[in-house]
Amino acid sequence: MTVALEVRNVIKTFKTDTGSINAVDDVSFQVPAGEFVALVGPSGSGKTTMLSILAALLSPTAGQVLVDGQDLAKMDEKDRVALRRNKIGFTFQANNLIPYLTAQENVEFMLQLNRKRDKVGRLRSQELLSRLGLGERLHNLPSQMSGGQQQRVAIARALIHNPTLVLADEPTASLDTERAFQVVKTFAALIHENQRAGIMVTHDLRMCQYVDRVLQMRDGKLVKIYTDQAEILGLARGE
Ligand SMILES: Nc1ncnc2c1ncn2[C@@H]1O[C@H](COP(=O)(O)OP(=O)(O)O)[C@@H](O)[C@H]1O
Ligand SMILES: [Mg+2]
């Protein structure tokens, strides 16, 4: 088993007007390659903060994050930027597509950054967009697509360079139920096929039916881990 991600006793403290808050409070877990994990919990429980730390966009107040065995805190900024570009794929609540690039160009932009925008890469981006239901939208600009379509382009962009770690914050937030299920199912299939580690933040427990493990946060703490498939399916059904 290859450990793609290791989180050791991570704490993130924010200053507030009245004092301080531990948005992430001593969280530890591992994700092996090939595993798709859901991170759930009520609003304000620290999910986005956790994901931002994993994406090396925010540094923890204490603790360690290792991606492919490399400690993010021990890298200089240049190496961290390279690691973020090569080994991490992410989509955040705001999809941040580049407005003057088409769907396919937005996805291939990640390949360009990694100098891999070749014929194989271009075929892969078309295939990936098609699998996400956007085969007819390859040459549309973000402004010509619905919010849900844009979100799927952002998902394709997070996966195209085959990163070790794929992070998605509420990837189904602007999709209708049918489409949300389809996207998460495809997401899970791609994680499994390519032996990547995937973490999806969601407040929609129904989406958990496609994941291998569920991490539940509350008040910055990891309060429960569901590993049993029957238990996960029960959670997804609202039992
Ligand atoms: N930059 C920040 N400064 C101060 N407090 C923050 C900041 N970011 C998040 N928080 C606080 O940390 C807690 C966790 O927030 P967040 O990670 O966004 O939760 P979630 O994504 O689960 O809704 C909340 O109480 C939030 O108000
Ligand atoms: Mg959030």
β content, as a range?
25-35%
Distance between the termini: 32 Å
The molecules bound to the chains, other than polymers, are:
adenosine-5'-diphosphate, magnesium ion
Q: How do the strands of the widest beta sheet line up side by side?
A: 6-7-8-3-9-10
The major sheet is characterized as: 6 strands, mixed
Query: Might you state the CATH topology name?
Result: Rossmann fold
CATH-defined superfamily: P-loop containing nucleotide triphosphate hydrolases
**Cα Rg:** 17 Å
**Structural category:** alpha/beta
Oligomer: single chain
CATH class: Alpha Beta
Extended strand count: 10
Order of helices and strands: EEEHEEHEHHHEHEEEH
> Average pLDDT across residues?
93
**Helical run tally:** 7
CATH architecture call = 3-Layer(aba) Sandwich
Shape: globular
What labels describe this entry?
7 helices, binds adenosine-5'-diphosphate, binds magnesium ion, alpha/beta, 239 residues, 27% strand, Rossmann fold, four-stranded antiparallel sheet, six-stranded mixed sheet, 10 strands, single chain
Task: Describe the overall structure.
The chain is an alpha/beta fold and 239 residues long. It has a single domain (33-49, 74-236), classed as P-loop containing nucleotide triphosphate hydrolases (Rossmann fold, 3-Layer(aba) Sandwich). The protein contains 7 helices and 10 strands. It has helices at residues 47-54, 77-87, 103-113, 119-131, 147-159, 177-193, 229-236; strands at residues 3-15, 20-32, 36-40, 62-67, 70-71, 88-91, 165-169, 197-201, 213-218, 221-226. The strands form 2 sheets. A 6-stranded mixed β-sheet has the order 6-7-8-3-9-10, sandwiched between helices. Strand 9 (213-218) and strand 10 form a beta hairpin. Helix 3 (103-113) packs across helix 4. The longest helix has 17 residues, at 177-193. It is globular, with a radius of gyration of 17 Å. Bound molecules: adenosine-5'-diphosphate (ADP) and magnesium ion (MG). Residues 47-48 line the site of magnesium ion.
